[in-house]
Amino acid sequence: MRVLVADDSRVMRQIVIRTLRQAGYDWWEITEAADGAVALDLVRSEQPDLVLSDWNMPEMTGIDLLRRMRAEGIEIPFGFVTSEGSNEMREAADAAGALFLIAKPFTAEVFSDTIDPFLA
Questions:
Q1: Could you give the dihedral angle defined by the CA atoms of residues 11, 89, 105 and 57, in that order, rounded to the nearest 10 degrees?
Q2: pTM score, two decimals?
Q3: Tens-digit pLDDT string for the chain (120 aa)
Q4: Which of 26, 55, 74, 116 could make an S-S bridge to 21, C-beta 3.0–4.6 Å?
């Protein structure tokens, strides 16, 4: 399984990756992107099986990344891992086609409980 983790914070990308490993996804091949524009380029070239993205990033936000992917017909499964989880954000994420939104702080259990249903 090839996964793209997009977050403008290198530390947060590492925390997300570590938490994925703790949740049992240690076999995943993970690529990192520092913003939405880089992530979009990687989505186009690498075609990952899943994108996990922060919401607030420079160059291109996570929601703009998702909307751009869908506008281009790219239907790769997409989830948010972000610091905010307001109802408005969750509604916008759902309307744009996101599978889920995990709000920080999170645990390995939250990751597996949220992601596992979409892997079946």
A1: 10
A2: 0.95
A3: 999 999 999 999 999 999 999 999 999 999 999 999 999 999 999 999 999 999 999 999 999 999 999 999 999 999 999 988 889 999 999 999 999 999 988 999 999 999 999 887
A4: 26
Nearest-angstrom CA–CA distance, 107 and 89: 20
Q: Is the peptide bond before 58 cis (omega within 30 degrees of 0)?
A: no
| CA pseudo-torsion sign 110, 45, 68, 12 | positive
